[in-house]
Specification:
The complex is a heterotrimer.
Chain A lengths: L10 H4 L7 H10 L4 E5 L2 H10 L22 E5 L4 H13 L5 E5 H6 L20 E3 L6 H16 L3 H12 L1
Parallel strand pairs in A: 1-2, 2-3, 3-4
Chain B lengths: L1 H12 L5 H4 L5 H6 L3 H12 L2 E5 L11 E7 L2 E8 L7 H5 L8 H5 L6 H16 L7 H29 L3 H22 L8 E2 L2 E2 L7 H23 L3 H7 L7 H6 L5 H5 L6 H4 L20 H25 L24 H6 L1 H13 L3 E12 L2 E12 L4 E5 L1 H6 L2 H4 L7 H9 L3 H5 L1
Antiparallel strand pairs in B: 1-2, 2-3, 4-5, 6-7, 7-8
Helix pairs in contact in B: 7-8, 8-9, 8-15, 8-20, 9-10, 10-15, 15-20
Chain C lengths: L1 H13 L7 E3 L2 E6 L5 H10 L5 E9 L7 E9 L4 E9 L5 E3 L8 H12 L2 E3 L29 E3 L3 E3 L9 E2 L7 H4 L2 E2 L5
Parallel strand pairs in C: 2-5, 6-7
Antiparallel strand pairs in C: 1-2, 3-4, 4-5, 8-9, 10-11
The chains are: A alpha/beta, B mainly alpha, C alpha+beta.
Chain lengths: 173, 443, 192
């Protein structure tokens, strides 16, 4: 039976074997275990914690632990207002994250500066780091954050990983 | 020689039980090397050299973005210098450029663990400036008291949950967050937003209680008591918990007053001062509740004060639900706003049909509430301490200067006094017991 | 009305230095004529009259008037919760007054914040440096001639700032206007 999925699987013929592309497999591993690094700065951090608590369990989606160490995390969730004073620290922590890494800008303040148009607030964290998903809301409901996580997972599943890895390998050799 | 120094530091600076077992054994290498002169001197230098450790702004246990520069001598802290301002958003300057009503959402985000309490505090401050605080209808006062006490419960739940989680008791965090979700449901029913509610307005509240809200509130209060009991079972007489927080960071009465502490931190040190009893506002005079006070002033006392304050808040909530004028459904149509068109937006049906109400609506929206020139200070008993608004007005709808006296800002200044002498691992316990929030500290 | 009695006692002790107590919305305010004597007045208030709790120190920028700075101290007695407001003025050329950290330790951080936001220095402060903004930030943000959007600065290695997009300035009514034309909301320049 021909299906339009990346994982072509017909249990009658294949049994316990799945035939797929390397890209699809790698992306499947990556997207289902996105470990977030919570850059919880302000009020959105409380909704982030609520998303991690028992009602809106974020570990259902693979984000099992909130790793506070950038070296061990995949996705940085910038939750809260980024001030100019904090911007240097955020950038430094982002630089410490190993590839592949993604960023979710959670809330109005992280996306664009929010309602704080003042002398001390960075108008959007995308001024200093590249953002993959923006979540609007002040603060966004935990369901909105989970929706953003799902969008990120969809984005990850479309990444041409193998091409990138082979290109890097070709550069090095 | 070097080994003896090490031991002296041990014994002199700590009197907590079990301290001896926690201390590292004296460095036996130092004794062996003491005979060779240059190496011994080098070692002594190395041992007396202080290490500067940055407990950075991004840290799981600093409850937000607080940076503390610690100077350590081994495991013991010798100097601590907190560096705040990583969440300074310019609220006070924004307040000078907004009308009083437009500033209400910013007050939500001050102490973002208890937004309803901040809303109530700000509304009361502006009403004091207007001089209408006595004219608030009784139903409005009861609603505001219920909001403030729910906010208090919610904030203490998170405070204790985060405190326990930082020290390792993760279950408590999940239990308290589950109860906070119920408070979020109540807040969402009353104002539309789970979290940053912007519920109060100058002269009243945004809208009346929805039907069935008081019953839901009563149900929540009844459900919270067994959870509080469970948290107490998990923590209060737990050997590990008591060992970690008892006799830690004792704040004496004189220090507490001199450093301007307020709220549970002040009461944990034994000072009986609660703004709800000392300068009663709203309808606290008609309600019966007690003020828990600590005896020693250590972290354990502050934790116990917060637990008991939650139970007293539940007591207040039950009384409010029983006594609220108009009852649960407001069948007698009690007003919830001051009946003054110049302060409160008139009902929309009249705005669309009558001239006077149209003019009031227009003036209130474009220019804001016309406050008289003068200055006031109003302090409100927030869950974190005393949230005060100093409003200097020159007339008109915007303040000339608004200063927000935030309890967390003042509470944090005591860190440089109580950290030195504690172990590195105690920092987390002390920060958890002080229960501050950076949104309020930095404004 | 015991706040009034305490204010009168301070006036009796310091004479012409203290103004007549004024009352507004139940609060008593006294003005101190000479900012240099603030430590004496505060010590008297704390030791003789038992105002042991300093609630808050605020600062007001009277832009366009002289003296430009008004520093406001809120004192409280914890025993009976009696509050008193003590104000003093500092001119712009001087921009300095003695620190009251020797009287109440909580004044430490409040004065640092006033220095950070307004630029008023406190003589005798143990550690006067910026608290909310970073070291090296060249402006004092809460002054009336500093725009809400901020200005471009760069302290390399620490922080940079850019002006926020306010599209010309906050559009809001000006306080204190006498007639409707003055009160009408319009784009506000920093100086107004």
């Amino acid at each position: 039976m021909r299906t339009n999925t990346e994982i072509g699987y017909d249990s009658k013929i294949e049994g316990d074997v799945i035939v797929t592309r390397v890209d699809a497999a790698l992306n499947w591993f990556r997207k289902n275990s996105v470990w977030p690094m919570p850059m919880g700065l302000a009020c959105c951090a409380i909704e982030l914690m609520a998303a991690g608590a028992s009602r809106f369990d974020i570990s259902r989606f693979g984000s099992e632990v909130m790793r506070f160490s950038p070296r061990q995390s995949d996705c940085m969730i910038v939750a809260g207002t980024v001030t100019y004073k904090m911007a240097g620290a955020v950038k430094r922590i982002y630089d410490q994250m190993p590839e592949p890494r993604w960023v979710i800008a959670m809330g109005a303040c992280a996306s664009t500066g929010g309602m704080y148009r003042s002398y001390a607030v960075l108008q959007g964290v995308d001024n200093i780091i590249p953002v993959d998903v923006y979540v609007s809301g002040c603060p966004p409901r935990p369901e909105a954050l989970l929706d953003a996580l799902i969008k990120l997972q969809n984005k990850i599943s479309k990444e041409p990983v193998l091409k990138r890895l082979t290109a890097v390998a070709a550069l090095k050799s | 020689m070097a080994a003896k120094e090490h031991k002296e530091v041990c014994v002199g600076e700590h009197s907590r039980p079990g301290c001896g077992s926690v201390r590292p054994a004296p460095n036996s290498n130092a004794v062996a090397l003491a005979s060779s002169r240059p190496a011994a001197e080098e070692l002594q230098d190395a041992q007396s050299e202080r290490m500067v450790l940055n407990m950075g702004p991004s840290h799981p246990a600093t409850h937000g973005v607080l940076r503390i520069v610690l100077e350590l001598d081994g495991e013991i802290i010798t100097k601590a210098d907190p560096d705040v301002g990583y969440l300074h958003r310019g609220d006070e300057k924004i307040a000078e450029n907004m009308t009083y009503t437009q500033f209400i959402p910013y007050t939500d985000r001050l102490d973002y663990l208890a937004p309803l309490a901040n809303n109530v505090a700000y509304a009361l401050a502006v009403e004091k400036l207007l001089g209408i605080e006595k004219d608030l209808p009784p139903r409005c006062q009861y609603i505001r008291v219920m909001c403030a006490e729910l906010a208090r419960v919610s904030s203490h739940l998170l405070g204790i949950g985060a405190f326990a989680m930082d020290l390792g008791a993760v279950t408590v965090f999940l239990l308290t967050f589950n109860e906070r979700e119920k408070v979020y449901n109540l807040a969402e029913a009353i104002s539309g937003a789970r979290f940053t509610t912007s519920y109060t307005r100058i002269g009243g509240v945004m809208r009346d209680l929805p039907p069935g809200w008081t019953e839901q509130c009563r149900k929540f209060c009844n459900e919270l008591v067994p959870v509080l009991n469970e948290v107490e079972t998990l923590l209060t007489r737990n050997r590990i918990w008591v060992d970690r927080v008892r006799d830690l960071a004792v704040i004496s009465k004189e220090d507490a007053i001199d450093y301007g502490l307020s709220g549970p931190n002040l009461r944990g040190s034994g000072i009986e001062y609660d703004l709800r009893k000392a300068q009663p506002y709203l309808c606290y005079k008609d309600l019966e509740f007690d003020i828990p006070i600590g005896s020693v002033g250590d972290c354990y006392d502050r934790y116990l004060v917060r637990m008991e304050e939650m139970r007293q808040s539940l007591r207040i909530l039950h009384q409010c639900i029983d006594k609220i004028p108009g009852g649960a459904d407001n069948k007698s149509n009690e007003p919830v706003n001051v009946a003054d068109g110049k302060i409160v937006l008139p009902p929309k049906q009249k705005v669309m049909t009558k001239m006077e109400e149209l003019i009031h609506q227009f003036m209130l929206v474009t220019e804001g509430v016309n406050c008289p020139p003068g200055e006031i200070y109003f302090g409100h008993e927030n869950p974190k301490g005393e949230l005060g608004f100093y409003i200097n007005s020159r007339g008109g709808g915007t303040p000339y200067r608004m200063k927000i006296r935030s309890p967390s800002f003042v509470n944090l200044s005591i860190i440089s006094k109580i950290f030195p002498g504690c172990l590195m691992s105690d920092t987390v316990a002390i920060l958890g017991s002080l229960d501050f929030v950076m949104g309020e500290c930095d404004r | 009305m015991s706040a009034l009695e305490f204010a009168k006692k301070i006036k009796a002790k310091f004479g012409d230095l203290i103004s007549e107590p004024t009352k507004f919305r139940g609060e008593i305010t006294i003005q101190l004529g000479d900012a240099e004597r603030i430590v004496e007045v505060c010590e008297f208030a704390k030791k003789e009259l038992d105002f042991n709790y300093l609630v808050d120190i605020s600062s007001v920028d009277n832009y366009g008037e002289d003296p430009r700075w008004t520093i406001v101290y809120h004192l409280r007695r914890l025993a009976d919760s009696c509050e008193l407001r003590l104000k003093t003025s500092v001119s712009e050329e001087k921009s300095e007054l003695p620190s009251v950290t020797t009287v109440w330790k909580t004044a430490n951080w409040h004065e640092r914040e006033i220095y950070d936001m307004m630029g008023v220095r406190f003589r005798g402060h143990p550690d006067l440096r910026r608290i909310l903004m970073w070291e090296g930030y060249p402006y004092f943000p809460l002054r009336k001639d500093f725009p809400l959007a901020g200005k471009t600065t760069d302290v390399p290695g620490v922080a940079f700032t850019q002006p926020a997009p306010l599209e010309g300035g906050p559009f809001v009514t000006a306080p204190g206007g006498k007639d409707a034309i003055e009160r009408e909301p319009r784009v506000r320049n920093p100086e107004s």
